[in-house]
Amino acid sequence: MSSSRNETISASSGGFGAVMGIKIFDCYIYPLKSGGSIRVENLELTQRGPKDDRLWLLVQDQGPDRGKFITQRDKGCEKLALVQAFPDVGGNMKFSAPGGQELVVSQDELSCYDGFVHVWGDDCAAIDAGNVAAHWFSNYIRKPCRLVKFPDDFIRSTDAAYSRQGDHVSFADGFPLLVTNVASLDKLRKHLPPNIEIEMERFRPNIVLEGAEPFEEDVIREIKIGDVVLEFVRPCSRCKITTISQAEGASTSDEPLRTLGRVRRGKGDGLEGVFFGQNAIPRKLGVIKVGDNVEILSKRPLHPALKNGGIGAQGTIDLPKR
């Protein structure tokens, strides 16, 4: 890590931020990567992220991109947002889609995937869920695909520039957790065009904070929730998925990506994009729950990519309302 990332500011040093009164507002898991969210009251954290989070994945099954991961970003796959996935009896997994379609994948149907699956440049071992599951999902998204599961014994490392040795992750984009802030979304909404409604689910967080200042997450380094400690390691760059209504499984406009491009775009220290939320890594494991108090253990300077202006934490320019 660069020296700027290692620098820590005491949370008690005064000035910016809501040290008291921050709580866990919501918790989510996504058993199928790019599938529907499941709101949970209790979130059990493992080293690679929340239990059951993004352990299942769809991959392409034909052509030169065989094994490449499929998400809502792919044309025609926006409706993956409407697929729900729940652990079923006996260790099985149940998937459901609109219209009463259901699929149950049993442990007996799992076998080693032939080759590797590819997630953001990482070659990952995987467990194949069988032909019945492949047929069910291929029919649903109308393209040949396979359903695979993350192996318990496979290690997929996180980005070394923002991690410690041994940090790892499931099929999530790059880090075990994504943390967002209610106040940040409230402030972003003030810059959106009239009649545009954007819900937090668009950003697909694992943990949502309440009681923090708008964009205070940009300058937090570590938080403590009961015995659990999380380190915020990198601003989360956002993509097309934020434009997809998670309740409708369709893109309804180019918002909030368009507005984020105007008020939260930055570049610096090897990171470029539009940003909302923070990627995080568990440092002390345990279970957190909705309503838990959050203590800020330490803060840090803004990442260079967030210093180029726009709405945000201390030191940035607050743009006028559109």
Topology:
Blueprint (H helix, E strand, L loop, with lengths): L2 H4 L2 E2 L11 E8 L8 E2 L2 E5 L2 E2 L5 E5 L8 E2 L13 E4 L5 E5 L3 E5 L5 E2 L4 E3 L2 E3 L2 E2 L2 H11 L3 E5 L27 E5 H8 L17 E4 L9 E6 L2 E10 L6 E2 L4 E2 L5 H7 L1 E4 L2 E14 L1 E4 L3 E7 L23
Parallel strand pairs: 16-17
Antiparallel strand pairs: 1-25, 2-3, 2-17, 2-25, 4-5, 4-24, 6-7, 6-15, 8-9, 9-10, 11-14, 12-13, 14-15, 16-23, 18-19, 18-25, 19-23, 20-21, 22-23
Radius of gyration: 20 Å
Helix content: under 10%
**Integer average pLDDT:** 91
Shape: globular
Largest sheet: 7 strands, mixed, barrel
Order of helix and strand elements from N to C terminus: HEEEEEEEEEEEEEEHEEHEEEEEHEEEE
Number of helices: 4
Which strand order do you get reading across the main beta sheet?
Answer: 2-17-16-23-19-18-25
Question: What proportion strand?
Answer: 35-45%
Q: What is the CATH topology of the largest domain?
A: M1 Pyruvate Kinase, Domain 3
Query: Uncertain runs with pLDDT below 50, 5 residues or more?
Result: 1-8, 12-19, 314-322
Describe the 3D structure:
This protein is 9% helix and 35% strand. The protein has 322 residues and is mostly beta strands. The chain folds into two domains: 3-51 and 165-306, Beta Barrel (M1 Pyruvate Kinase, Domain 3), CATH 2.40.33; 56-149, no CATH class. Strand 22 and strand 23 (271-284) form a beta hairpin. Mean pLDDT is 91; it is low at 1-8, 12-19 and 314-322.
Keywords:
322 residues, mainly beta, M1 Pyruvate Kinase, Domain 3, 2 domains, 7-stranded mixed beta barrel, 5-stranded antiparallel β-sheet, 35% strand, globular, disordered N terminus, disordered C terminus
